[in-house]
Specification:
Largest sheet: 7 strands, mixed
Number of domains: 3
Strand order of the largest sheet: 2-1-3-4-5-11-14
Strand content: 15-25%
Shape: elongated
Order of helices and strands: HHHHEHEHEHEEHEHEHEHEHEHEEEE
Radius of gyration: 25 Å
Structural class: alpha/beta
CATH class of the largest domain: Alpha Beta
């Protein structure tokens, strides 16, 4: 007996039709071995009962995977400090679940590269999302050589060809927050960035440099580039800036960091040197992680809609799976960003401002913004 409000199962249909569960499965998967009368009776009862086989069950019956791989570099940092990629993962998982798929994290750096290569080559995954610039090209090449659907997240190929990608409008966001600093009257700035080979670090630095040059301010070449974008690397970058500046007297008035983790690490290093923020040094970041609002002073930053990025990336991947065609033409979807003004820039009143290209695809190579 089916409970009130409960969805009928394959066992319920089999019981009503007086056949085995295996017979009902063969009917819905159009397999041989079921007579015409039985097939019609099963379908009629299923329709009467409102039974629909789950997409996941049907894929498994047909020998197809219901798993999507989420490749991302693993860093040993607290989720609260930098939840950027996990937020994208959760959003992608929500979309995937509605279509009968589930998302499996594949952690680069935690699992040996050879093991990840084997998992990709084993055909366990229907498609992949590759998040960030630290997913090795060798893994992406293996996916593409197997003609498996792939979408890049917060990254893009340097050559401007390859799989579709989804990212935030990094260059526009960087320019917006730096112009906000310049509107305060700061004329001497510096930038902390990750490797400029990473698309987002490059784009965010580019937005910084364009704004500084447009306002004829100092700091376009005052850049500290480090190997990663963590709180520890922001702390290290400030130490390097302190030494290069000859201490307090030579420091800039304001500091733009390409993400919040670096900004929070740099702020800690500055306070340890005895600086008062923002009176002696204004600091801004990018991403709007939860800790940005809790910092003292609260961090002015650029908000990224990670939920939108994860949803759009999953939708792009699902379209490839539904069409049965692997997308080989590079397109870039840019998600608009929002300036979030708090106290670390010198403001006393919080405000928000949205900027960027409306989320939509752009074809070609260097038209977009990306990486964390």
């Amino acid at each position: 007996m089916i409970g009130v409000g409960a969805k009928p199962t394959i066992r319920d249909v089999a019981a009503r039709a007086g056949v085995s569960v295996a017979t009902v499965s063969r009917v819905f998967n159009n397999k041989e071995g079921v007579g015409g009368d039985v097939r019609r009776r099963v379908l009629a009862l299923a329709d009467e009962m409102g039974y629909q086989p789950s997409p996941s069950a049907r894929r498994l019956a047909e020998g197809r995977s219901d798993s999507l791989g989420f490749l991302v570099r693993y860093h040993r940092v607290l989720h609260a400090q930098d939840p950027f990629y996990s937020s994208i993962l959760y959003a992608a998982e929500a979309v995937a679940c509605r279509h009968g798929f589930h998302v499996v994290p594949l952690l680069v750096g935690e699992s040996p590269l050879e093991q990840l290569q084997r998992e990709i080559s084993a055909g366990r995954f229907a498609g992949f999302l590759a998040a960030g610039p630290e997913v090795p090209d060798s893994l992406l090449e293996t996916i593409r050589n197997r003609s498996t659907p792939l979408v890049l997240v917060d990254n893009r190929p340097d050559a401007g060809s390859g799989p579709p990608a989804v990212s935030s409008d990094d260059q526009a966001g960087a320019r917006l927050v730096v112009e906000h600093l310049l509107a305060h009257g700061y004329t001497d700035l510096a930038c902390f960035t990750g490797p400029l080979s990473w698309p987002s670090s490059r784009d965010r630095y580019s937005g910084y440099a364009v704004a500084v040059q447009a306002h004829q301010a100092r700091g376009g070449d005052r850049v500290v580039s480090v190997g990663e974008t963590t709180a520890a690397s922001g702390y290290e970058a400030f130490q390097r800036l302190w030494r290069a500046s000859g201490g307090r007297a030579g420091l800039p008035q304001a500091l733009f960091c390409v993400n919040d983790a670096m900004a929070l690490g740099a702020s800690r290093a500055a306070r340890e040197k005895g600086l008062h923020l923002p009176e002696e040094l204004a600091v801004v970041g990018f991403d709007d992680v939860p800790m940005a609002a809790e910092a003292r002073p609260a961090l002015t930053t650029v908000h990224i809609d990670t939920e939108r990025i994860g949803s759009l990336a999953a939708e792009q991947l699902l379209r490839q799976l539904e069409s049965g065609r692997v997308e080989s033409t590079f397109t870039l979807v840019l998600v608009p960003v929002e300036l979030v003004v708090r106290a670390s820039c010198g403001c006393s009143v919080a405000q928000r401002e949205t900027v960027g290209t409306p989320a939509g695809a752009r074809s070609g190579g260097w038209q977009g913004r990306s990486v964390h």
